[in-house]
Amino acid sequence: MDKEKKMDRLRELTDLLDAAARAYYQEDREIMSNLEYDALYDELADLEKELGIVLAKSPTHRVGYEILSELEKEEHESPMLSLDKTKSPEALQGWLGSQEGILSWKMDGLTVVLTYRDGHLAKAVTRGNGVIGEVITNNARVFQNLPAAIPFQGELVLRGEAVIKYSDFEKINAAIPDVDSRYKNPRNLCSGSVRQLNNEITAKRNVYFFAFSMVKAEGRETADSVEENMLWVRSLGFDIVPYERVDRDTILEAIRRFSGQIKENDFPSDGLVLIYDNIPYGRSLGRTAKFPRNAIAFKWADEEAETRLTAIEWSPSRTGLINPIAIFEPVDLEGTTVSRASLHNLSIMDQLELGIGDTIKVYKANMIIPQVSQNLTRSGGYQIPDHCPACGGQTEIRLDNDVKTLYCINPFCSAKKVKLFAHYVSRDAMNIDGVSEATLTRMIDREFLAELNDIYHLDRFSEEIIGMEGFGQKSYDNLIRSIDRSRKTRLDRFIFALGIPNVGLSNARLICRHFNWSLEEIRRASAEEMTQIDGIGPVIAMSVRDYFVNEHNASITDRLVSELTFEVMEEGPGAEDGNQAVFAGKTFVITGSVEHFKNRKEVKELIESLGGKVTGSVSRNTDYLINNDKMSGSSKNRKAGELGIPILSEEDFMVMAGLDPDA
């Protein structure tokens, strides 16, 4: 098997075993037997050893998740300039002249600079403003296709694009019920994902990295050809941006081929990049104040259509921002019919001098997102609503970074309330079934719900609810039963359910654990006290503090508490005997079947309640491996043996946790 085929097999095995691990640990199901998994694991480990390449999601080298309080800033060694651009294929052909070039996708994501030292990722920095970027090393380690180890020991510096596939983008958006909360495009989603403080979120977003430039390879004589250098980068295990080698005679046909692939391409792109393959020649051209002269961007000529503006729709969001949307007579663009486009803000509307009945030109940005490009008649005089279309409250024009925007200033706006109630009843919060956003909207409109505590008094409106479209006696009874079940809950779920900005369920659990599961202690705590909690930074601490000192929030909290009973949390059975101290800060790996618990997820929750954490693979950071088959020859057992990590049976673990295995 040649090296290229071995690399393909390494990628195949990594993807297969990663899927198996996710199914096993996150979904409590198996897609292959332990025997098959171990055989494939061993094959992958042998290939990684032979090639010297380990991909980021390889089960042999799983990176633990970390939470940061902020992203550090760092200045680039050399400025990252933007590229000059053209929309003319002929201009691109003339620019290339007699030289040969590399024509590749201009991927639409976030540019990242990677530095590897001694074969491992040492640093990752975003492009930022071209001079100063943000350090995202923690997040880059969980990019789906990034090598964790490479067979090159010198310092290697690469530039590339972090992107999210359309298919993943659509899945993530489909899981967000609130249309206004959905991401506008893959680039925005990728930008937020790459810059997370918790890299577990980044890992779940399926970010990919494609290298497009080799900046430095210490100790290696680099070629004078861009293509040769990038092929060498690919041999190290990196994915590189797909490209074609072109000259004056072939470039126009190559552009047509790229254009034909756009609709089938799963990765977002906003054009092409052409760079001279001859590196010394490109360097000899120097650069302008804004652009390098060795490369140029090609932007697709957008297909435009002329139509008539029939209305402006104002769409309020959960943040209070009211987004203007242009409604126009339907036109065909890029193979689909469109009749609406976001106008983004009031500043853009002012620039376009919009008025109802105007003749406008619309297009699809990057062949995807409908936009208004021109207003041919410019009648002006569009009307800014004085009142929010959702709640009727007053609106306010604000200037955010020199951009005019429209906000609803009613703190109890129904558009905001629907999202708050939907969050409160969600599965990880109070877990109340039978109330979709549409149902909540109707209940809010009928004034059945004004504050969160009203959920516990819906029986006052039993007849009206039973008579609602899509409801009935059975649906009503199920809803009331679900509400009653929610009256007994855990404090961390309740804190999460309140919808405090920046506070997720895991953060809520950390806070509750630190304050001995006492709501009163949490409400009295200062922001400084909360920042003493490992994993809680100043932003989260201030959010919690600000929430509870607000008089309205304090009143609602009191009313809710009067409806609820909180489970007594002793940080797991045996905590009073010092077992919590045994677990605090310890890392566990769970493998195989369990007998005394429903599933491994239940074991994981117990460990976390005792202050420990659970990861998916055995490493030097692992303190204990839990496996009922302590003598098996599984890869996890072998790894634990090599590293001297204790292997606990389920009964060993239960004794350690203060549980009686015979009970």
What is the element layout, followed by pairings?
Elements: H1 3-26, H2 34-51, E1 54-55, E2 73-75, E3 85-86, H3 89-96, E4 101-107, E5 110-117, E6 120-126, E7 132-134, H4 137-140, E8 147-149, E9 156-164, H5 166-174, H6 186-194, H7 199-204, E10 207-217, H8 226-235, E11 243-246, H9 251-261, E12 269-276, H10 279-284, E13 295-298, E14 304-316, E15 321-333, E16 336-342, H11 346-352, E17 359-365, E18 369-375, E19 395-400, E20 403-408, H12 414-425, H13 437-445, H14 462-466, H15 473-486, E21 488-489, H16 491-497, H17 505-514, H18 519-524, H19 527-530, H20 538-549, H21 551-561, E22 565-566, H22 579-583, E23 587-590, H23 600-609, E24 613-615, E25 624-626, H24 635-643, E26 647-648, H25 650-656
Parallel strand pairs: 3-13, 21-22, 23-24, 23-25, 25-26
Antiparallel strand pairs: 1-8, 2-7, 4-11, 4-12, 5-6, 5-9, 9-10, 12-13, 14-15, 14-17, 15-16, 15-20, 17-18, 19-20
Helix pairs in contact: 1-2, 12-13, 16-17
